[in-house]
Specification:
- This protein has a single domain, classed as NAD(P)-binding Rossmann-like Domain (Rossmann fold).
- β2, α2 and β3 form a beta-alpha-beta unit.
- Strands 3-2-1-4-5-6-7 form a seven-stranded parallel β-sheet, with helices on both faces.
- The protein is an alpha/beta fold.
- The longest helix is centred in the middle third of the chain and has 22 residues.
- It contains seven helices and seven strands; from the N terminus they run βαβαβαβαβαβαβα.
Length: about 240
């Protein structure tokens, strides 16, 4: 019997890779996009077993409109992947960036889970895509880091509340992943990452697939870091060690 998943943000990067992986695994995917209409339509055309919806998760009414539209659909899986990042100016902080980031990265995933949790079949699974930024402080992206930290915590609370229905909820905290949003600075991470490279979207998709599967049947409330070891490294300690060689 074909399984069904909701995956937000499928037009590019990690979300596209997740969508491709799940369709390959036999899922029918309901996927969302915001600005990447052309890319989302190409995903739908290529994969066939995909339905797409344009949603701007910064608009609460659009988020609620999506869950209402999917109100009669039963799901085996929900993957909250859609997110936003906008750099900030600390000295002249624009609280509008904070509000919008929290709406997209935290409020929307929470509302989707709250409104559709009863639509998730017993034994189903939810995966939230967080970030290693949620595990550390930031300089010019406080809203992004805080939103991902809160998403990690919300994952635990959702796991507590949905466990009685045998619905598992986990998060993934990707490190530096080579996507369409990669920058010259992001490739600097390879210099201190133990695996000496950045990740691939497909590697996060593989982890999502595992967490949704029966192979992960006793894993819930967890956040799995997938960063090639980047957050294991203290830059100064690494430099000190290199100077001794």
């Amino acid at each position: 019997m074909q399984k069904t998943a909701l995956v937000t943000g499928i037009s590019r990067g990690i979300g596209k890779a997740i969508c491709e992986k799940l369709v390959k695994k036999g899922y029918f995917v309901h996927g969302t996009y915001n600005t990447g209409k052309k890319e989302a339509e190409e995903v739908k055309k290529k994969l066939k077993n995909v339905e797409i919806y344009q949603v701007d998760f910064a608009d609460r009414e659009q988020t609620l409109g999506l869950v209402k539209k999917l109100g009669r659909q039963k799901f085996d899986a929900i993957v909250n992947n859609a997110g936003m990042y906008e750099p900030e100016e600390f000295e002249e902080y624009d609280v509008k960036i904070w509000d919008k980031t929290m709406e997209v990265n935290l409020n929307a995933p929470l509302l989707i889970c709250l409104k559709l949790c009863k639509n998730v079949k017993e034994g189903g699974s939810i995966v939230n895509i967080a970030s290693t930024d949620g595990l550390i402080g930031s300089f010019a992206s406080m809203a992004y880091s805080a939103s991902k930290a809160a998403l990690i915590n919300i994952t635990k609370s959702l796991a507590n509340n949905l466990g009685k229905r045998n619905v598992r909820v986990n998060a993934i905290a990707p490190g530096w992943i080579n996507t369409g949003m990669s920058t010259e600075e992001s490739f600097e991470a390879t210099k201190i990452t133990p695996l000496s490279r950045n990740g691939k979207p497909e590697e996060i998709a593989n982890l999502v697939s595992f967490l949704l599967s029966k192979d992960a049947s006793f894993i819930t409330g967890s956040t799995i870091v997938a960063d090639g070891g980047y957050t294991c490294v203290d830059y100064i300690m690494k430099k000190e060690a290199e100077s001794c060689n």
